[in-house]
Design brief:
alpha/beta, 23 helices
């Protein structure tokens, strides 16, 4: 089998990977060839051994069965199956809910367990917890638990349900930009529009995302579908081959309204949802792949496990606070195919301006209960790019009124086009998003970074350390909740490792280790941090300035901790410590800390008993 460069590199290093890690994720973009890699790993390193492959959807099982059956004896677990596992076959395919007795036996006998779409693994969930506990306690000592995913992140605030608890390491196999340069994937070309009359601010997002029940009516009332149809008709003429598109919708009501509008505009279209019978779904998807159906409208079907390399336009009509959903759906259009040189991404849901291009997405193995709040600002990514010290970028929003009565509303990069005219409507009637949306009115991490590195060494050099360095207990004892967050940041900056980390997993191991140490200090000294509803960087900045929120005692004691670090560590080490310290302060503010802590990495009762 001919392997791509990144696949060959993983095969070459696989012996060292399994020597170092028992439970790990292989992370590679959608369309990179993870299933092919899994098949080759089985052939090279587990031939004749017992392999259990888990995934959450039947359609994924069908794909895996087809891919693995060429070289292996494969059995797809049925609900009615009984008896011992691996009798007459070496690869068992299953969803996590099927034939539990056989599945339980397979976990004990497996030499390799593969989990497709591994970001869905819930370490504290009813099914995966049983599988993980069984594998960890009773599985073969030489066996591996290997995940495959393009987006290693779970949207959960439960600290017992974090992805890092299921896997010891994330192996970064390939990134989108490298695969584009190699021709494995095609270049995404974004056409983002900001739909002015889509009201998202009034929607309750306490669940962690926009609830479909309230999101769908808001979409129908807005001009989102009109923008999508208008943009699509313009962009379909910019495709060198026949246009083949996938439309991602929030629910069936939106999908049906979208389908009707597409068909009225003269485009051959169809719809698939979770309720579409499997045979009918497969027939429709086949017609879409061969071009008989130009536009496929979907609800919760195409984001994972669907592969149509001929798809060259993605239309996103699903506003979300989930980076995983955004990345997975856009990634479906990036597979290469003959005659395909790009994929156009029409985004009318403000996901591009919130998260950024999918090739720039960053992932996190740990989250807290309100980590989604940063995405409430639908210009979150644009604000970050404006404030990037190394590569500032300013984006414009076209407000030109079109003949159909809509505003153009295209978002584009300043200085990228002649006379800064909009590339869509050809006029200049744009505003600076950063200034207009007042993104510069609130402190962000880049600004805090500058303040911190300029302010702390200067103040520290002028301090009488004999006074402030001994006042730690007093500072903590009298601290308000906001002052506690500031002191947590300072303590984290002092204690966390400044060593470079090779992976996301290593980064979080160092971060959680320092968080654990701080929790021990707080619990031992009977200091409690109450869960807060938000984490405000301005509170840390205020401490740097001894302002109105953080008083002089807490401010000067905290700076004494940080200043000592600047004296003993390099600039690069301080920078790495700073970024981890921000994460630790945010986590302690959102999760809280008390003598009742019972976290996977810190049990307060056990800690106190050990003193």
């Amino acid at each position: 089998m001919h392997l791509r460069n990144w696949q060959q590199q993983i095969i070459d290093t696989f012996p060292s990977i399994i020597e170092q890690h028992r439970r790990f994720i292989l992370k590679a973009p959608t369309g990179a060839g993870k299933t092919v890699l899994a098949s080759e790993i089985i052939e090279r390193f587990y031939k004749g051994k017992n392999i259990l492959v888990l995934c959450h959807r039947l359609v994924l099982l069908e794909q895996l069965e087809k891919a693995l059956s060429e070289k292996h004896t494969v059995h797809k677990l049925a609900v009615s199956d009984k008896g011992p596992a691996f009798e007459g076959y070496d690869v068992l395919l299953s969803t996590s809910m099927r034939a539990k007795a056989v599945l339980a036996d397979a976990v004990l006998k497996a030499d390799l367990i593969i989990v497709d779409e591994a970001h869905r693994v819930s370490p504290n969930g009813q099914i995966y917890k049983v599988i993980l506990d069984s594998f960890n306690k009773s599985g073969k000592a030489t066996a591996q638990f290997m995940g495959l995913t393009a987006s290693p992140e779970r949207r959960t605030g439960d600290q017992r349900d974090q992805l890092n608890l299921a896997f010891d390491a994330i192996i970064d196999c390939a990134n989108i930009e490298d695969l584009i340069s190699e021709g494995v994937l095609v270049q995404p070309v974004y056409r983002p529009h900001f739909v002015h009359n889509l009201d998202l601010e009034s929607i309750d997002i306490s669940s962690g995302d926009f609830p479909v029940a309230t999101l769908a009516p808001a979409i129908i009332k807005s001009s989102m579908i009109d923008y999508a149809i208008w943009s699509y008709h313009e962009e379909r003429t910019n495709i060198s081959s026949k246009p083949v598109s996938a439309w991602f919708c929030a629910d069936v009501m939106v999908a049906e309204a979208t389908l009707e509008s597409i068909q009225k505009s003269g485009i051959e279209a169809a719809i698939v949802t979770a309720a579409t019978p499997l045979k009918e779904r497969m027939k429709l998807l086949e017609s879409h792949e061969n071009g008989e159906i130009e536009a496929m409208v979907s609800v919760g079907v195409l984001a994972e496990g669907w592969d149509n390399p001929n798809c060259n336009i993605i239309v996103h009509l699903r506003p979300t606070l989930s980076k995983v959903l955004w990345g997975q759906s856009v990634g479906r259009g990036l597979r290469s195919a003959p005659g395909k040189d790009k994929c156009i991404i029409i985004d009318v849901s403000s996901n591009w301006s919130t998260f950024g291009p999918v090739e720039k997405l960053e992932w996190s193995l740990w989250s807290h209960r309100r980590s989604y709040l940063q995405f409430m600002n639908r210009f979150n990514w644009i604000g970050e790019r404006q404030d990037d010290e190394d590569a500032q970028e300013t984006y414009l929003l076209c407000k030109n009124e079109l003949p159909n009565g809509m505003r153009c509303s295209h978002i584009y990069l300043k200085n990228a086009y002649e006379n800064e005219t909009c590339p869509v409507c050809g006029t200049f009637a744009a505003i600076d998003i950063y200034k207009e949306q007042k993104l510069d009115s609130s402190l962000n991490e880049n600004k805090l970074h500058t303040l911190f590195f300029e302010r702390v060494p200067k103040v520290y050099d002028e301090m009488d350390l004999s006074v402030w360095s001994s006042l730690g207990r007093t500072a903590w004892k009298s601290a308000t909740p906001k002052e506690q967050v500031f002191l947590t940041f300072c303590m984290a900056f002092k204690e966390v490792s400044g060593e470079p980390t090779k992976s996301e997993s290593d980064y979080w191991d160092a971060t959680i280790a320092a968080e654990t140490l701080i929790r021990g200090y707080l619990v031992k000294n009977k200091f409690q941090i109450v869960k807060q509803n938000d984490f405000n960087l301005a509170d840390i900045a205020d401490g740097m300035l001894a302002g109105t929120v953080v008083r002089a005692l807490q401010s000067h004691y905290g700076i004494s901790l940080c200043g000592d670090v600047f004296k003993n560590f390099s600039d690069a080490e301080c920078d790495r410590k700073y970024h981890k310290a921000i994460k630790i302060a945010e986590r302690l503010a959102m999760i809280g800390c008390s003598h009742q802590d019972n976290l996977p990495y810190f049990n307060a009762a056990n800690y106190l008993a050990s003193l």
